[in-house]
UniProtKB/TrEMBL annotation:
Residues 66-312 form the DUF222 domain. InterPro entries: DUF222, HNH_nuc. CDD domains: HNHc. This is DUF222 domain-containing protein. It comes from the Bacteria.
Length: 664
């Protein structure tokens, strides 16, 4: 292959070893398609390196600088990506001609290539080796590349690639995106929370025309829980419509009609009220204040949103409301600046912003420099100018008390100017301008020094805040490897708060009783799906007075059911507990690479047909409607399900794809 150096020169190197597809190499035309796909990935990496080398050969130093006549407009310059700032603006046109692209597409190609080579070098290597294909790049470019901290970005990049290398099944772009969101949200939790807060301030409804004249699209931007509840409620209204054989509308048409009726004609549609069921997944670490992300109907959400949503559903106060500040173990002799959170009201950054506004300072400094040093000031004030009028009395004229200013555009050219008193008056004005400039430069130096001290203080406060957070309960919970360690890491107040949350939800009162998912701490596999009353029943001998204290209770518990997957069902349809457990284990269609939700009713398939195969967790798997039909109708396919839920799909050409239930 050809490797491009930073100076644009090309050297011949040996081909990098290519990874074997997880499903294996097929024979015949399908194998040729696999090989071609690997070549596409390899050449995409080669193209990115070549474009980046070309960009390095076109530095921005050859362009006109900002403010210079004929330079790129300030608006366009501000809109350029950071990786394009060192590149000449004319490189885009050159690339567009070479590749036959529009200018916009060529600039996008430049940005992607430079981002891959500079910010995601390991991803580029994986693309060249065949671990990734081209479809995997967009979610990495969108979510991982923007991370500002280079060390954190490299850590996220390496964790994702290690996860890919350890997988045995097919990894689609949607699956990789889901993993990317989880890793970025967990490792970059507080930045993700700030991004979410900014995004929520941009909520709204917009309309744009579609390609077909007379049709427009309405876009609603809101939080994930609100969006999921909105779509579920709208779908429930559609399901509640009376079935009319003569109604030829599609489900999409019915959905739009229901929305219009509910919004434009409330109370006139006669649609029955509906109840929406959202699945919120929040781990013990999340509920105790850690950074582990949660889920809302399978969509990843930041820990803070999952925490607040769980408490809101339980009718409890938001986390931190009227709660005393947690004591942080460690050095108590820190300075006030070091102990105040940098992002709280009244912290060092806020004080710095109050003392010195960057925008105001920049505007003041620009005006100062422009007034003192730039432009072409007139050679002298016009007669009647305040500076002229105030300067002359200070100077005076001893030789001619009746002297008056000479009304001449250039006094030095006027007759007798060499001996007139106009010269000393002008020097006084010039001296005062120089003194004003010296005062301005001194003031600017003081302001810059003040800004430097405030930035240093903010850095110290940020470091102290990070140290305090890591030493406090949220940091200890985030660092915990499992729920038991997390419970041991917090104090009695946090444990009591968690107990109050469980007690508030265990008695029902919601659309469905909240469940407690017990999972394997290492693999994340679902072990049991239960609730607080069931936990109490499993831990006692069922006698009213027994509290199952090992030191006082010697009752025989061998007949108790314990915790695990529900027992098999005698009939064809699974019982409610088994149905709930299988859906909680699978959550999405189990066909390799599919991300569709399992429909609310049906689509749990017996891998070994009933009654030969029993209706049990070891013989049931969830599919979307399309893949459920394909399992029964597509010839030559084989499906094998292990007791732990691992599904192996074998294609007619002999390829195998292994998929495990998504971990918690």
């Amino acid at each position: 292959m050809i490797e491009y150096m930073a100076d644009g020169s090309a050297v011949q190197v040996l081909d990098a070893p290519r990874a074997t597809p997880t499903a294996g190499w097929a024979a015949g035309p399908l194998g040729a398609a696999q090989a071609a796909d690997r070549e596409v990935a390899r050449h995409t990496a080669l193209r990115a390196r070549a474009v980046a080398a070309f960009a390095a050969s076109r530095p921005a130093s050859t362009d006109r600088t900002q403010g210079e006549r004929g330079a790129m407009s300030a608006e366009r310059w501000a809109a350029r990506a950071d990786v394009l700032r060192p590149v000449s603006e004319w490189a885009t046109q050159e690339l567009a001609i070479a590749l036959g692209l529009t200018a916009q597409a060529a600039e996008g190609e430049l940005e992607r290539s430079l981002t891959l080579t500079q910010r995601l070098p390991a991803v580029l290597d994986a693309l060249e080796a065949g671990v990734l294909h081209v479809g995997h790049l967009w979610c990495l470019l969108e979510h991982v590349a923007p991370i500002a901290d280079a060390a954190l970005r490299a850590r996220v990049e390496r964790e994702l690639l290690d996860w890919l290398a350890a997988r045995r099944g097919v990894t689609t772009p949607a699956q990789l995106e889901d993993r990317v969101r989880r890793v970025v949200t967990r490792l970059n939790a507080r930045d993700a929370a700030r991004d979410l807060a900014r995004a929520l301030r941009q909520r709204g409804v917009s309309v744009r025309p579609e390609r077909t004249v007379g049709v427009s699209a309405v876009t609603v931007v809101c939080s994930t829980p609100e969006a999921q509840a909105f779509v579920r409620a709208l779908g429930a209204h559609v399901d509640a419509l009376d079935a009319d054989p003569a109604d030829a509308r599609t489900r999409g048409e019915k959905t739009v009609d229901c929305l219009l009726d509910l919004v434009l004609r409330p109370g006139e549609s006669e649609l029955p009220p509906v109840q929406v069921l959202l699945t919120v997944v929040a781990s013990v670490q999340t509920l105790l204040g850690g950074d582990h992300p949660g889920e809302v109907d399978g969509q990843v959400v930041p820990a803070e949103m999952a925490r607040q949503l769980a408490r809101a559903l339980a009718g409890l106060a938001p986390v931190g409301a009227d709660a005393p500040d947690a004591e942080v173990p460690g050095d108590t002799a820190q300075s006030p600046e070091a102990t105040e959170p940098w992002d709280c009201d009244g912290g060092p950054v806020d004080r710095a912003a109050a003392d010195l506004s960057a925008e105001a300072f920049d505007r003041w400094l620009d005006e100062l420099v422009r007034d003192a040093f730039s432009g072409d000031p007139p050679l002298e004030p016009l007669p009647g100018d305040p500076e002229w009028d105030t300067a002359l009395p200070d100077v005076g004229c001893d030789t001619d008390p009746d002297w008056e200013p000479v009304d001449h555009p250039h006094p030095e050219d006027a007759p007798g100017s060499a001996v007139s008193c106009a010269g000393p008056g002008w020097w006084a004005v010039a001296d005062r301008a120089v003194e004003d400039a010296e005062d301005a430069v001194h003031a600017a130096g003081l302001a810059l020094g003040h800004a430097h001290r405030m930035v240093t203080t903010a850095d110290r406060a940020d470091a102290a805040d990070e140290t305090a957070w890591q030493a406090g309960p949220p940091g200890r919970v985030t660092a915990a490897r499992d729920a038991v360690t997390a419970l041991a890491a917090v104090g009695e107040a946090q444990r009591a708060d968690l107990a109050a949350l469980l007690a508030a939800t265990a008695g029902g009162g919601l659309a469905d009783r909240p469940r407690i998912a017990l999972t394997d701490a290492v693999t994340g596999a679902l072990l049991a799906l239960t609730d607080l009353p069931a936990l109490r029943r499993a831990g006692t001998c069922a006698r009213p007075a027994c509290r199952r204290r090992p030191e006082t209770c010697d009752h025989d518990l061998t007949c108790r059911p314990g915790l695990g997957a529900p027992a098999p069902t005698d009939g064809y349809r699974p019982a409610a507990g088994l149905d709930r457990w299988v859906r909680a284990r699978d959550r999405r269609c189990r066909f390799p690479g599919c991300r569709r939700r399992i429909p609310a009713a049906g689509e749990l398939d017996h891998l070994r047909p009933w009654p030969t195969g029993e209706t049990s967790a070891a013989n049931l798997a969830g599919f979307c409607t399309t893949h459920h039909r394909g399992k029964h109708q597509a010839p030559g396919w084989r499906y094998d399900l292990r007791s732990d839920g691992t599904l192996t799909v074998t294609t007619p050409t002999g390829l195998t794809a292994v998929g495990e239930p998504p971990p918690y």
